[in-house]
Please model this.
Amino acid sequence: MSVTKPSLKLTHAAALKALAEAVAYAESIGVPQNITIVDDGGNLLAFIRMDGAKLLSRETSMSKAITAASHRQPTSRLDPALELKLAIAGGGRLTNLEGGLPIIFDGICVGGVGVGSGTGLQDIEVARAALAAIGAEDQQP
Model:
């Protein structure tokens, strides 16, 4: 029986590259955003609050990133019947708001990106730019 297993880890360099591309995309559409990138354990790797981004969206961007990493799926796909229970059980860190995407390589989730301050669609577009910058799989339809 093995007591360890190899695993993929998101590097800080990849997190910064993803963050930079997300910022560039947000600037190109004229929507200042809060952008959070976490590892597979929900630990903060990179964050920015762009000039003009909504203050409280800082919290939602973090919750979106953690939720996407934790559930290994885009936010907004949680069962609505469980939404409130999961938020309470997760200490308020889980959300079903659009704008969180898991960061997946070779079918393995290595983290999450969460974006908040625009519309749900704008948040998703910015998160997708982050994934594309590092060649991560995109699970959005």
User: Anything to note?
Assistant: The domain at 12-134 is CATH 3.30.450.150 (Beta-Lactamase).
